[in-house]
């Protein structure tokens, strides 16, 4: 059973996703602030580095944004040159560019930006200059894929692109057409703002706020309940869904069991604290050790208190299966990106190794962030990658622990 909990405080809104009672995702946003990823800026090129095939742009943030050459070439792969040109042939210092943030600033690094603009909607993602149609890979039925692709193809204009999202499965062609037209109008509004005289850099488009993004991106038929503890916000969400997705409005609930908070009722804060510890216990008594480095994140799997009852191979296999499920959950909860290596406990049977791999692949399919399971290395480690957008701990009330040289966090909530 999947549930979304929305806790509305005076200073911030928090969102938690539970799967069978276990915390799988968490996000928050302070009132009056916003996520940068998805926003578009009219920026000025400050430096062009031929040796890095990249440029740095001032988009009005504290640190200059980073634009790599791949994000300047055409979005349609078939239209890209066989040999990459020099970055100096594409962009010059002082030039004004319309860019979109794809990765939040992290630490000493500025935001990562692209010229491949996109505006996500409820049923699809509109790309004004991509010139191709795509359908989510999570839609497996070939007949349905073809229907959705034809529906999008009949409505896009020359040069436009559109990717049909997983949520569009079973949705009528008229609904998809309406979504595409709404997104197109938003892009036309961006173009008008760009053409208007004004200071550079400046922001010309903002993505939705936290709750609106979750309603758009994360609320689907597999969510059994959406709990909101604020009456006004609850009413506005129900009204919105009755127009855009009537069947989902029936899943929205108002939480009124004060003085016990919504998160306290579902033990969210407790699970947040335990989920971000270096040592994370598994339900069977085994445990994970999670370590971060600049290059990658490492998970080490241990049997711990679990001794099993059949054989050593079965004990190890059971622990690895449980670890695979929990690691996939922790990747989402902690929003871990980049290269990830898992040191599962050694197994003697190749069939068991294959089962662990397949389970990990299945569990990562639940992730809305692109995750690729590469497979076993020759040293018996599991490799995978996950798209890095932001650091999960940036959203938490934690500070780096000075005692352990920054390897742990101190909870301050």
TrEMBL record:
<dbReference type="InterPro" id="IPR019307">
    <property type="entry name" value="RNA-bd_AU-1/RNase_E/G"/>
</dbReference>
<keyword id="KW-0694">RNA-binding</keyword>
<dbReference type="Pfam" id="PF10150">
    <property type="entry name" value="RNase_E_G"/>
</dbReference>
<protein>
    <submittedName>
        <fullName>Rne/Rng family ribonuclease</fullName>
    </submittedName>
</protein>
<dbReference type="InterPro" id="IPR012340">
    <property type="entry name" value="NA-bd_OB-fold"/>
</dbReference>
<feature type="domain" description="S1 motif">
    <location>
        <begin position="36"/>
        <end position="116"/>
    </location>
</feature>
<dbReference type="InterPro" id="IPR003029">
    <property type="entry name" value="S1_domain"/>
</dbReference>
<keyword id="KW-0378">Hydrolase</keyword>
<keyword id="KW-0479">Metal-binding</keyword>
<dbReference type="InterPro" id="IPR004659">
    <property type="entry name" value="RNase_E/G"/>
</dbReference>
<keyword id="KW-0460">Magnesium</keyword>
